[in-house]
Write a structure and sequence with these properties.
about 10% strand; alpha+beta; peptidoglycan binding
Length: about 240
């Protein structure tokens, strides 16, 4: 053994190089202090006096008259029928009573009734007239021209036996509406639709409500169906030939 003194820090045993716990403890304390200070500052800022927001109505006008309102232009549309006093201080004339009704003169009426009526002078006699000359014989009136016979009413259209061609008169939103439309057309045009019978066909549409097609038929060929449709269109009834 030697007598050389050894520093005390060299005599401390080594623990294998672990983490510096003292530095970790100091850093954790500083972080906790920062968090606590931030929480206190936030609480103080939230606890101060605050104003309540005031909601006001919109100051802009609700309705604005356009410069050009459009629409139908009528002559003298801005003139007033009765003139109104616009700030005038003139007073209206005072009202006046109507004059009293005229009273009958009783004395004049009695004197007029008491007087005798005047006697009318006899009328002079008319001179005798000479016998009228014999009128010359007149020619016999010419016979009236014969009137043309009245046009015969159009023949009533009827379906052909075993006719397979049909026509369509419209497409409505319900079966009741389709049958009501047929009744209305048949009452107005019995000569065209009186002999036919209605046929209501349901038509499905994707994503939309169905339609009900109003049809009738019984035509021998397409030509006769087209001719019939022309007669219906002349009466302003829609018509389409269905093959």
């Amino acid at each position: 053994m030697t007598d050389i003194p050894v520093p005390s820090y060299r005599m401390r045993p080594s623990h294998g190089g672990g983490p510096p716990w003292r530095m970790i403890a100091v850093g954790g304390g500083l972080a906790a202090m920062l968090v606590a200070g931030g929480a206190i500052a936030w609480g103080l800022s939230r606890g101060g006096a605050r104003t309540v927001p005031l909601i006001e109505a919109d100051a802009r006008p609700f309705k604005v008259r356009p410069d050009d309102p459009g629409g139908l232009r009528v002559p003298n549309q801005d003139e007033l029928i009765f003139e109104r006093s616009r700030g005038s201080t003139a007073q209206p004339p005072p009202a006046r009573l109507a004059p009293e009704p005229e009273a009958p003169r009783i004395d004049a009426l009695r004197a007029q009734v008491a007087q005798p009526p005047p006697v009318a002078a006899p009328a002079p006699s008319a001179p005798a007239r000479a016998p009228a000359a014999e009128a010359p014989p007149q020619a016999a009136p010419a016979p009236a021209p014969a009137t043309a016979p009245a046009a015969a009413p159009p023949a009533r259209v009827a379906p052909a036996p075993n006719g397979a061609i049909r026509i369509q008169l419209g497409a409505l939103t319900s079966e009741e509406a389709a049958r009501a439309e047929w009744d209305r057309l048949a009452r107005r045009h019995p000569d065209l639709l009186g002999a036919f019978r209605p046929q209501v066909v349901r038509f499905e549409r994707e994503g939309q409500p169905p339609l009900f097609r109003l049809r009738t038929g019984g035509f021998a060929d397409i030509a006769s169906a087209r001719e019939y449709c022309e007669r219906l269109r002349a009466e302003r009834i829609p018509c389409l030939v269905v093959r």
